[in-house]
Amino acid sequence: MQKIALITGATSGIGRATAITLAEKGLNLIITGRRETHLLSLKKELEAKGVSVLPLCFDVRNEAEVNEALYNLPTAWENVDILVNNAGLAAGLNTLQEGSTDDWDRMIDTNVKGLLYVTRAIAPGMVERHIGQIINIGSIAGKEVYPNGNVYCATKHAVDALTKGMRMDLLPHNVRVTQICPGAVETEFSLVRFHGDSSRAAKVYEGFENLVAADIADCIWFVVSRPSHVNINDLVVMPTAQASATLFHKVSI
Prior knowledge:
This protein is an alpha/beta fold. It has a single domain (4-237), classed as NAD(P)-binding Rossmann-like Domain (Rossmann fold). It is built from eight helices and seven strands, in the order E-H-E-H-E-H-E-H-E-H-E-H-H-H-E. The chain has helices at 13-24, 36-47, 63-70, 101-129, 150-170, 189-193, 198-203, 213-224; strands at residues 4-7, 28-33, 53-57, 82-85, 132-137, 175-182, 234-237. The chain has a seven-stranded parallel beta sheet with strand order 3-2-1-4-5-6-7, with helices on both faces. Helix 1 crosses helix 8, helix 3 runs parallel beside helix 4 and helix 4 packs parallel to helix 5. The radius of gyration is 18 Å and the shape is globular.
């Protein structure tokens, strides 16, 4: 029987790349996101690879929407084998004293509460079946703190702590829990952080070869494809040209 993977934030970036990679490996997919047209386009692309796809349009920040979608899965989709908690974002890059509370709420509600809402809906089924795998997409911002990163770093530190807590809680139930922490990956991340300022976003990736979403999707497949007795607890992935959140070897052009 083909396994089922649920991927949040599947309409772009790492989530989209992960959906494509897992489809190519033969997994059936539940893809979620806020942009319905993107979901339906991705569904068509994935089904062309010979797998079944269930698109669910909801915002992970909205507990009622999450519950409506995930507690009412069609029977054929109820047994989720792999949960990829990918939905996440950064909003703003300001000192704490100059920060926007709207940005703070958006990051906390997406990166922390959204992950919790989705996991709360899916984990009990894994416990009942005594098998499953949860992969949380963290960040190197969950391993260190950088100037003006304050609240974003705090949310990713929360993901780091929640991953460890999940692993302890789910240990007796044979559910594997992994965190993957990327460094500089060129996706929509910086465009969202800078509220659509494409020129400012582009400067983040100048002068070095950054990671791309497919690099992280490969890491997710590596984790998923390990034998059942092997769990990758924590995986930190950066470009060769990056040594920390703020230290890069950049070449002037």
